[in-house]
Amino acid sequence: MNVCIKSLPAGAPCTAIAKLAGERFKALSAKEKEVYEAKYKEKRAAYEEELKAWKASKPAEADDKEDEDDEDDEEDEEEEKPAPKKKARKAGA
């Protein structure tokens, strides 16, 4: 992977690096991809466990209040500003 990054000019945008890395990953065979997919599954499982533990440690009441606040904010944003009315132009102006 370092070879592909070093082949880019200095100061190349991160999007160019990501594009090149994606192209190289697509070029790998299924057998070569298995290594990376196994690492992904392993890390994803660890993440899910940590997320469950974190959610379990949060008080249930705080979750409900935050959800209600988010819904109210969305409704307020929609109601705040009606579209401005356009003024009619006079002919010949």
Keywords:
4 helices, 93 residues, flat, mainly alpha
Structure description:
By secondary structure, the chain is mainly alpha-helical. It has a domain at 30-77. The protein has helices at 2-6, 14-27, 30-57, 60-80. It starts with a helix and ends in a 13-residue tail after the last helix.
Using DSSP, what is the number of strands?
A: 0
Determine the strand fraction and express it as a percent band: under 5%
Q: Which parts are unreliable, with pLDDT below 50 for 5 consecutive residues or more?
A: none
Mean of residue pLDDT values: 79
**Helix percentage:** over 70%
| SSE order | HHHH
Span from first to last CA?
A: 65 Å
Rg over alpha carbons: 26 Å
Largest sheet: none
Tell me, what's the shape? flat
By secondary-structure content and strand pairing, the structural class works out as: mainly alpha
- Helix count equals 4
Secondary structure elements and their pairing?
Blueprint: H1 2-6, H2 14-27, H3 30-57, H4 60-80
Question: What is the structure about, briefly put?
Answer:
The protein is mainly α.
